[in-house]
Amino acid sequence: MSTGRAVADDGGSGLAGFRRNVWWGLAGTVACVLGFAVGDWVLDPDVPAGLRALTGLSTAATIVACGVLLGRRMRDRAPSAGWLVTAGCAAVVAGAVPLAVGNFGIWSIAPAATIAVLVMFLPARRAWQVLGAALVVLPAIGLVVALATGEPNVAHAVWMPALMVVAFGPAMLGMLRGWQVAARLDDARRLAGELAVADERLRFAADLHDIQGHHLQVIALKSELAARLAEADPARAAAQMREVQQLAGDALRETRALVQGYRRTTLDAEIANASKVLAAAGVEVRADVDAGLAAALPDAPRSLLGLVVREATTNVLRHSRATRAAIVLVPDDAGARLVIDNDGARPARSTNGDTNGAADASGAAGAAGAADVNRAAGAADATGTAGAAGPVGAAGDGTGLASLAERLDAVGGRLSWVSDEDRFVVTATVAG
Question: Which N-terminal residues, if any, form the signal peptide (predicted)?
Fold first, then answer.
């Protein structure tokens, strides 16, 4: 019946106070019932002093031992053998003395309370089985003693022990169950917080990839071009390096904004930037965007579409030799559909993450020459695979579009692709 948690470490969760209240409720029930029921008999001057003293001491020991055992149970600790023996022996004495002198009203209280405490350390089914056995054994003891001593009120000797078992057992197990439910709910709350933190870390990693992957790829391409042009055309090389400087500054600013939690992707800005960057790489770009539709989209889907544009553009620059590309945003039955199409797809030559197997940029650049290095580093749309149509993320390492596919799915959208000879089309749909 353990809750499976270290309850002793719950001080910061607000659960420690509730645990103390449950303990006081359980221990207080045992102490009050035993104290009031046995106290009158212990103070009765007609009862021999020795029997009163023995009953009083054993009852007090029962109360203390039950309190200690309840404390260990509330902290999910194993019962101490010493306290188990103390509670059992004290309960036997506290019940045997009144029973021996014919007090059939109070003798079963200490044994019933102790049994109810001890079964709390057992699994639920076993606990109820033990209580059921006690419901038979204690009344049977009362019946046998009553018949042996000639007690006229035999019924009282039978139903009183049964009443004590029924009164203590379910009540104490019910209070324990309430505590366990509260502890598990607190565990669930804590786990939900940890999952939220993990999800935010994944979101942050995806955004950081979107920012740095795009800018760093363009910087690498322009730096390579500048290095090739340094001797042949210093002026053009210097222009390329100024653009590199600007791109580095943009990446730094966006990274800082992301860290501070202020960054938001703008679909219009991403489409405009993609058109500019692809044109600089020698790709003829056609952008057909419904501005009203873009403005009407909710923030989350619009931001994700902007990230799709950025990721697709980055992979165009990295992994193909596209000469033409199109970026189209049109209404869709569900809301809006973004289509990014290029003619740079080629047969796969590797299984690298967000590529369709294009040759690497540096090798292509060498073959094409310094003047054409931008185009040589061009793009096959970011797909994570080569071949037939399917959902993005079905192959590859999933660090780019695969991650965006999951995020679009979370807001009711979808990301897919299709490859047809030299054409590659990435399609994203979102709800309006």
Answer: none
C-beta of residue 220 within 8 angstroms of C-beta of residue 213: no
Q: Which pLDDT band, with edges at 50, 70 and 90, does 189 fall under? A: confident
Say yes or no: 418 and 285 in one domain: yes
> In 215-234, which positions are buried (b, 16+ CB within 10 angstroms) versus exposed (e)?
bebbbbbbebbbebbeeeee
List of residues 6+ apart from 304 with CB closer than 8 A? 265, 404, 407, 408, 411, 413, 428, 430
Question: 53-57: long-range contacts (C-beta < 8 A, 24 or more apart)?
Answer: 54/93, 54/97, 55/93, 55/94, 55/97, 55/98
Domain residues for the domain of 170 are 7-192
Alpha helices in 230-266 (DSSP H): 234-259
Helix (H, G, I), strand (E, B) or coil at 328: strand
Q: Are 106 and 41 in contact (CB under 8 A)?
A: yes
Q: What is the pLDDT of residues 82-92, one digit of tens each?
A: 999 999 999 99
Considering its fold, how many domains does the chain have in total? 2
Average pLDDT value over all residues in the chain: 78
pLDDT at 274 over 80: yes
- Per the DSSP assignment, residues forming a β-bridge with 342 are 325, 424
* pLDDT > 90? residue 307: no
Contacts of residue 76, defined as CB under 8 A and 6 or more positions apart, other chains included, come to: 2, 3, 4, 5, 6, 7
